[in-house]
Amino acid sequence: MEAGTEFENQDPKDTHTCTSLSLPVSNSSPNCQEETSQGNGDNCTNIPVPSLNYTGSHSMKTSGHHPRTLTEEEAAKLSQDTRVVNDFKQMTLEKEAQKNWDKFYKRNSTKFFKDRHWTSREFRELSGFDSSQEEKKIVLEVGCGVGNFLFPLLGENPNLFFYACDFSPRAVQFVKDHPLYNSSQCMAFQCDLTQDPLLDTLVNPTVDIVSMIFVLSAIHPEKMLSALENIYKVLKPGGCVLVRDYGLYDYAQLRFSPGQKLAENFYVRQDGTRAYYFSTDYLSDLFARAGYQIDNCDYVTRETVNKKEGLCVPRIFVQGKFIKMRS
C-alpha cells in the first residue's frame, strides 16, 4: 500500500473513527499535553503556516493558523524533506495523470472507498430538501469516483438531480454500471476540470450545489484556479461549492518518504496519483481569486483507527463553503 492511502479510504464518520480532537490553532505555544489529548504530548514543537494577505471585499470565516502541533521528529522530517522530484518526472506525472487514475480504478474497482454516508451530516446544504417541490435541486459532483457520494445522497433525497463527472473514464463507467444509476436522476460524464468547459455539458448556469470531496488536492496546484473558474461558470448566482479535502500536517502527509515531494505540500504516491495538503489560508485564497465569497473555511480534526495495525492516528481535513455572489 503506497504512502498516504491506507487511511484515505476510511469514512471519517464510520466506526473506525474514534474521538474528535479539539486542537488549538493559536500561534502561541500551547501546552503539548493538551495538544494531543492522548498523553503523547512530549517533545512537541510549533511550525507556523504562513498567512496570506487578503484583498477585495469578500467576507470570510477562516482558521488562519496551523491545524496541529508537530512533534520534534515530525517537524524535523518535514524540514529535512527538501529534495523534489525532477522536472522530467513531474511533467510525465502530469501527462499521465488520467492514466494513473484509470489504473487506480482498474486495480481497486469499486472496493477502495466506502460509501460516504456522512456528507449530509457534515453539509446541511445536502439535507432537508422538500420532496413536494416540483423543481429538483441540481447538484454537480466533480471527481465522482465510483459514486460513493452520489448514490447514498440520491437514496436520501430523491428530489435531487446529479451531474457527476470524473477525470477517469473507467470511474465514470463504474458509475453508469451501478444498479442505482438512473438517467432520470443523474448524468455521469468524463471531464478534465482544468481544460474541458463544463458549459459544453451543462449549457447554462443551472447548478445549485457543487461538491468537491477530496478532489482539488489531486489537481496540480498551478491548475487549481482554472478548475475553480470552470465550476464558477455553471453555478447559479447564490449557489455554493462544498469542499472537504486533505489538510496540512495530516497523518498521510507525514508518511511520505524522501523522493516523493513534488512541491511545497504536494506529493506523489507510489501509484503515480498525487495529493496536495491544504492550509485554510491557501484554500480560501484560491476560491477568492476565482471570484467566490468565502462563507466558511475551517480545519476538521479526527483520529482514525486502523484496527489491523493497532494505530489511532491524527487526520486533518479542510472543509469549507464558497458562494457565487448574486449579481
UniProtKB/TrEMBL annotation:
Reactions that this protein is recorded to catalyse:
cytidine(32) in tRNA(Ser) + S-adenosyl-L-methionine = N(3)-methylcytidine(32) in tRNA(Ser) + S-adenosyl-L-homocysteine + H(+)
Q: What is this protein called?
A: tRNA N(3)-cytidine methyltransferase METTL6
Q: Which UniProt keywords apply?
A: Cytoplasm, Methyltransferase, Nucleus, Transferase, tRNA processing
Q: Please, which domain of life does this record's source organism belong to? A: Eukaryota
The compartments listed are: Cytoplasm; Nucleus
Q: Where is the composition biased (Polar residues)?
A: 32-62
Among Pfam families, the record links this protein to: Methyltransf_12
* Gene Ontology terms for molecular function: tRNA (cytidine-3-)-methyltransferase activity
The annotated region (Disordered) lies at: 1-72
Q: What does this protein do?
A: S-adenosyl-L-methionine-dependent methyltransferase that mediates N(3)-methylcytidine modification of residue 32 of the tRNA anticodon loop of tRNA(Ser), including tRNA(Ser)(UGA) and tRNA(Ser)(GCU). Interaction with SARS1/SerRS is required for N(3)-methylcytidine methylation.
